[in-house]
């Protein structure tokens, strides 16, 4: 028994060190311009059986389970930060990329996989389907903090949040063609539309129900609200999966609805899921790094095949899919080139590459190794150069957004009031106004102003200036009216993009 306790303690110690090292790695990733997911994978490979030998992990079932759970958390966090008013104008092109674009990418990559890997056509189509979709975890992580044009950022986020159903459908369909003697093609097509439709309906229903519950149920502690919201994320995935619908699509839809609703304790929920999303990314990519066998991946046949397939994917398949899918929409050729380049692959293709191994498909290990190296190449080349590409094509935007955060005050949590934090931009109408002239509701009070690092005690004659950060105490029922006043902008040819 003592030996088991010692082993448990050693495991806990190792997990602590991995978590600390992984978080420190994120700092280096931003300085080196390398996506953090690549470094997380390298950490997993380093402590694995062929690295330092601390952990021996080769269980595909557990790797798949961890990957799916992590993707639920990451999609939920990303969806809550997605603003409906931003993605609404680009829903049509995003869905076209998520469906037609994935099919086109699958077909083009399949041709390369057929002749590069010397496998059958169905197996080649399986490889194309696995790498056919962009990855929400990678896209959200790569775009976070980047000043990419809002329209393009919304298109990429919506595409990555909705293209998993098509990739999963194609992957499972080709696995069935390889393992089942007779397959009903019409049934498979009908299954896809059911997965998309039912996933959308389930996600929307749970999203609206969750928003209502989060606002109406008065919990004893504000710390329970983030966990309450997370429970609805897993409920969305579980309920849709039981109905044979797309669980990941349902999670994303649920998150978008919750994130765009007026929520009590919104700030606590978002901050919790931001940290939990990072935790999920770290865990998922370390597990995937542990699962891979470096001596099999970093061999000349796999590396040369992976480089060729990655080259076709990055420079031929994705651009062709993007230009053809977006041909009927109002995107310039520069924007299409950028959307082509920003189609980063990540965790989803690696998790899907585990499916053939679970189904005992011939050449499944070769497929996994090649897909892993292809994804690693895509993340390194595309992920590290998105900012450069946006700058080169002049597709960056000025800081138009002024975030409104609600700072929940635990001591007055039962009083149904919140503290709003608002950063004033030059375009806001309130610039130049005196506090006594602001048309705020009677139950709203500006408590403090932060100006150039100094705290200013507000009074009636205090004039609001651009760059000020206002702290406003307001009742929840008047919160929307206060936000309307704060977000009003001057009409100088464009409007501010709010991240409320």
Automatic annotation (TrEMBL):
GO terms for biological process: potassium ion transport; proton transmembrane transport. Keywords: Antiport, Cell membrane, Ion transport, Membrane, Transmembrane, Transmembrane helix, Transport. Residues 407-488 form the RCK C-terminal domain. GO terms for molecular function: antiporter activity; monoatomic cation transmembrane transporter activity. It is found in: Cell membrane. The chain crosses the membrane at residues 6-25, 37-56, 62-82, 94-113, 119-143, 192-210, 222-239, 245-263, 275-292, 338-359, 365-390. Pfam families: Na_H_Exchanger, TrkA_C. Gene3D superfamilies: 1.20.1530.20, Regulator of K+ conductance, C-terminal domain (3.30.70.1450). GO terms for cellular component: plasma membrane. It is a multi-pass membrane protein. The keyword Transmembrane helix applies. It comes from the Bacteria. This is Potassium/proton antiporter.
């Amino acid at each position: 028994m003592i030996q088991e306790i010692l082993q448990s303690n050693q495991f806990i110690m190792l997990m602590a060190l991995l978590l600390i090292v992984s978080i420190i790695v994120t700092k280096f990733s931003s300085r080196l311009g390398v996506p953090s997911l690549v470094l997380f994978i390298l950490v997993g490979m380093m402590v694995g059986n062929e690295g330092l030998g601390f952990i021996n992990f080769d269980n595909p079932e557990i790797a798949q389970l961890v990957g799916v759970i992590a993707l639920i958390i990451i999609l939920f966090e990303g969806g809550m930060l997605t603003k409906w008013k931003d993605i609404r104008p680009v829903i049509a092109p995003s869905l076209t990329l998520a469906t037609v674009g994935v099919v086109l990418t699958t077909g083009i990559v399949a041709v390369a996989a057929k002749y590069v890997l010397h496998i059958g056509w169905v197996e080649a189509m399986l490889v194309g389907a696995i790498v056919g979709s962009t990855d929400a975890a990678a896209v959200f992580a790569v775009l976070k903090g980047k000043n990419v044009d809002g329209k393009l950022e919304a298109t990429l986020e919506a595409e990555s949040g909705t293209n998993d159903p098509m990739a999963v459908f194609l992957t499972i369909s080709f696995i069935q063609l390889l393992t089942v003697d007779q397959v009903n093609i019409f049934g498979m097509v009908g299954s896809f539309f059911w997965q998309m439709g039912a996933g959308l309906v389930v996600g929307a229903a749970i999203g609206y129900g969750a928003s209502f519950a989060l606002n109406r149920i008065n919990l004893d502690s504000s710390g329970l609200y983030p966990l309450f919201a997370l429970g609805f994320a897993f409920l969305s995935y579980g309920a849709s999966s039981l109905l044979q619908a797309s669980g990941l699509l349902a999670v994303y839809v649920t998150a978008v609805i919750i994130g765009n609703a007026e929520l009590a304790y919104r700030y606590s929920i978002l901050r919790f899921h931001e940290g939990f999303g990072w935790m999920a990314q770290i865990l998922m990519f370390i597990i995937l790094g542990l699962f891979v066998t470096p001596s099999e991946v970093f061999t000349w046949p796999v590396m040369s095949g992976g480089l060729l397939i990655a080259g076709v994917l990055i420079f031929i398949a994705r651009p062709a899919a993007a230009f053809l899918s977006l041909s009927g929409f109002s995107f310039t050729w520069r924007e299409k080139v950028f959307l082509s380049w920003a189609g980063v692959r990540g965790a989803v293709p690696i998790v899907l590459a585990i499916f053939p191994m679970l189904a005992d498909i011939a050449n499944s290990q070769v497929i996994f190794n090649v897909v892993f190296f292809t994804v690693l190449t895509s993340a390194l080349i595309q992920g590290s150069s998105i900012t450069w590409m946006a700058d080169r094509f002049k597709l960056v935007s000025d800081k138009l957004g002024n975030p409104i955060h609600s700072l929940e005050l635990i001591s007055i949590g039962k009083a149904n009031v919140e503290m709003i934090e608002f950063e004033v931009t030059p375009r806001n109408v309130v610039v130049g106004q005196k506090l006594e002239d602001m048309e705020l509701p009677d139950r709203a009070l500006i408590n403090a102003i932060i100006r150039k690092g100094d705290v200013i005690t507000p009074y009636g004659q205090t004039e609001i200036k651009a760059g000020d950060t206002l702290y406003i105490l307001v009742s929840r029922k008047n919160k929307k009216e206060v936000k309307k006043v704060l977000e009003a902008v001057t009409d100088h040819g464009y409007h501010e993009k709010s991240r409320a």
